[in-house]
Amino acid sequence: MFQRLVNHNDDLRRLVEKGYAVAFDTNYLVVRDIPYLDADGALQTGAFVAKLVFTDQDHIKQDDHQVFFAGSVPHGLDGNPLANLAGGPHQLTLSDACKDVVVQRSFSNKPKITGAFVDFFDKIESYVAIISGPAMEKYRADPYTFRVVEQMVPNSVFKFHDTLTSRAEITELVGRFKDDVIAVIGLGGTGAYLLDFIVKTPVREVRSFDLDPYYVHNAFRSPGRVEEAEFGHLKADVYRARYENFRSGLLMAPKFIDSHSAAELDGVTFAFVCVDKGSARAGIIDVLIAKKIPFIDVGMGLNRKHGALNGMVRVTYFAAADAQTILDKQLVELADTPENVYRTNIQIAELNALNACLAVIRFKQLRGFYLEEGPIYNLLFGISDMKIVSESELT
Question: Residue 46 in contact with residue 69, Cβ under 8 Å?
């Protein structure tokens, strides 16, 4: 990545040619060997970190006028903290390849005349003049070490730069999914939206299972662009084509999962069950419990009331240790229901998406990405009153 970015971005090339110790850490520019004075007037060395915003695979632009700094508070020749540096204490987690760069604060200093930096070269030069100036004058130190550190950043599962993570400064939270192998069982309405969300989560592998073809009615409750040529093809093939250019680690299998499918689930760390047929759900749950795989089962029940659709959207979490206890509560249907409006009404994409959202949010709570105040195992959303009721006490 180092040489590609330097070759395609003139401002980065100029930084390297001038001698700055430039490196790249996923979606951050890192400039080491920045001299500055501490509170005692002693010479210290820090590093600048700035967000990279990718406009395509090879070209970047600035995010704003701010930088992060790995180091203590820089001081001037008079022994006072440098003025005109807004910001304050700040933490930012980089990859293991940059574990020597520990961000401690952020700085904010706009150019007086233009109010914005032209590019990264302009930004780094400006901050060096302010922060390193006293050290350069007192110790004749400078940041031009011509040191190139080409980090071996762990390969991403995504085929595009995940700039959202760096912009939101949640790198350490996103890292909590890196070892997950997720199974999405059933690619109907809710399963299709759930797959879309999980594909965009940096889990190590996504396996999805569905033997059914993709028909016109599926287009009304699935995300993304629809191509007429997709109709009649297997859902597994349709969704593989939609997502294989986005990330690696995808397995889309045209098959049903039942009590005989243990091998297909080897290595799975979490599963989502997205089927509307009770008898199919029963077989899937049997094999998941037997393999001690935690999972979330989703579902909805709709009926006509006063001429409109009403009902519930459900998310049920089965922890590996409590799965049988939760199953005994009969929260999920394990037999086929003869009449169900859901089976005939296809214009409910918003409910499918909501069901998938609630399930993925619950999963991400379990991984510590979202805050979890209680061990919720069942969640119901009522359509008519828009209320959510949850259960967390296993009795």
Answer: yes
CB 49 within 8 A of CB 147: no
For the packed helices 10-18 and 120-131, what is the interaxial angle rounded to 10 degrees?
Answer: 40
Two structure tokens written together for 73: 């508070």
Q: CB neighbours of 374 closer than 8 A, spacing ≥ 6? A: 390, 392
- Residues 288-322 have pLDDT tens digits of 999 999 999 999 888 887 888 888 999 999 999 99
Residues 6+ apart with CB under 8 A from 2: 22, 23, 24, 148, 150, 151
Q: Give the CA distances from residue 265 to residues 73, 80, 327, 343, 366, in Å, rounded to whole numbers and listed in that order.
A: 52, 62, 20, 28, 20
List the domains of the chain with CATH numbers. Answer: 2-156 (no CATH), 172-391 (3.40.50.720)
List the one residue out of 362, 356, 382, 223 whose CA is nearest residue 301: 382
Q: How far apart are CA 90 and CA 227, in angstroms?
A: 47
Q: What is the pLDDT of residues 65-106, one digit of tens each?
A: 999 999 999 999 999 999 989 889 999 988 888 889 999 999
